[in-house]
User: Which sequence fits this backbone?
């Protein structure tokens, strides 16, 4: 039986993305989709040349519309602004610092013709050869995330307008984890998370030690907020033995890595954290541990 292709609204959120958004727009311009679609670039208070780059693509992409989300800063607010302006029957979310692979939009459209909620695939090598290494995203679409339910990653997820209207907007009170919260609300409402492996998004890591550390810390703070919200639905705390082991390793490794190994690394002429895998792993886990502690204090609920 023939299923008509849905009308897609691609919601591309951008904040100070002048250095990367052109590559994403070029990738979207090259997409082929037989159904109707529009591209909404949601500018969330950028102060660089993001708008200038977007305007350069408007002639080549007649379906592109620029949406200003300038009342407040925040990814979830920006996505909701795009959703409010969308004309399509289905919304497809992506970010300005990633790059859609060929066939991405067609794969999303085909999946959305039969499913309300779709998670695309994440590819992490192409854009990150010179960035700080980090653990891969893993199969979040099929395995329980944080011991609870699978989740779609916000830079490559799609939702029907029907499902979005039923469960409500992205939660703008969450600084991080809005995509997880949306995925879980949809599943608790009875929608199944469908994975489309052909819908590939090349994912870009943050650059630099500090920005990567802040991102992982914010992830961890958001995880505490998720636990506070979903513990009543069955989301567990990490096992006590796992928590004790993690924090214990962090404390034991600190003197060796930072007081001994790090100076030796500098003396060898290696100045980047990514050249020392043990130091990199410690750095990222320190962000998670600190974020869990800060989040537990902020939300007055213990989740370490």
Assistant:
């Amino acid at each position: 039986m023939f299923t008509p292709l849905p009308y897609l609204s691609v919601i591309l959120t951008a904040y100070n993305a002048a250095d990367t958004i052109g590559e994403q727009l070029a990738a979207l311009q090259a997409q082929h989709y037989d159904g109707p679609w529009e591209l909404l670039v949601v500018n969330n208070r950028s102060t660089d040349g993001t708008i200038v780059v977007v305007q350069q693509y408007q002639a080549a992409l007649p379906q592109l519309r620029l949406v200003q989300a300038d009342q407040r800063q925040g990814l979830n607010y920006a996505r909701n602004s795009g959703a409010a302006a969308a004309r399509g029957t289905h919304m497809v979310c992506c970010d300005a610092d990633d790059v859609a692979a060929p066939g991405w939009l067609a794969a999303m459209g085909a999946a959305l013709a039969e499913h309300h909620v779709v998670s695309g695939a994440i590819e992490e090598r192409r854009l990150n050869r010179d960035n700080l290494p980090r653990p891969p995203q893993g199969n979040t679409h099929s395995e329980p995330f944080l011991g609870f339910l699978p989740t779609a990653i916000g830079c490559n997820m799609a939702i029907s307008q029907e499902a979005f209207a039923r469960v409500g907007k992205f939660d703008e009170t969450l600084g991080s984890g809005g995509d997880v919260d949306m995925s879980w609300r949809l599943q608790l409402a009875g929608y199944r998370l469908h994975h489309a492996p052909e819908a590939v998004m090349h994912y870009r890591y943050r650059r630099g030690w500090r920005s990567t550390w802040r991102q992982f810390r914010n992830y961890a703070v958001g995880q505490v907020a998720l636990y506070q919200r979903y513990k009543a639905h069955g989301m567990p705390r990490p096992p006590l033995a796992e928590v004790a082991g993690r924090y214990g390793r962090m404390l034991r490794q600190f003197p060796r890595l930072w007081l001994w190994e790090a100076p030796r690394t500098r003396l060898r002429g290696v100045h980047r954290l990514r050249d020392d895998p043990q130091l990199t792993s410690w750095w990222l886990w320190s962000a998670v541990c600190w974020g869990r502690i800060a989040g537990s204090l902020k939300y007055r609920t213990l989740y370490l």
The two ends are 50 Å apart (CA to CA). The first helix runs from residue 21 to 29. Residues 209-299 form one domain.
